[in-house]
Design goal:
Layout lengths: L6 H17 L2 H7 L8 H10 L17 H13 L6 H15 L2 H13 L8
Helix pairs in contact: 1-3, 1-4, 5-6
Amino acid sequence: MSLLYDDAQLAIAQEARRALEAQSRTETLLALLEQTGSYDTGYWMLAKEQGWTAATLPENYGGLGLSLVELGLIAFQIGRVLAGAPFLTTGFGAARAIAAHAPVAFQHAWLPRLASGEAIGAFH
């Protein structure tokens, strides 16, 4: 029994680890180091399928409404395999900025797209 995480949180971390280890390819990551503006599309499809792109977004925008604890557990597993995709900048950074500061119409237009992984967020 964990003193830090409940059973549901541990299950999220274990499933993320299992899925990422099955998907992770060192040669894919090494190839990305030679490119600019690219990301691992296989990993991104996995992130979308697993719902990681929607982890902390509100449910009314297609999100899962999870806490930062679950996000951190997923991010930790992503870091373990050095996944080459914009996980935190999209599902958390851009989404949280839009949710906190954008007009409601902008939120309605973009948050569901970020939650589904259809759009990828970035900062300029």
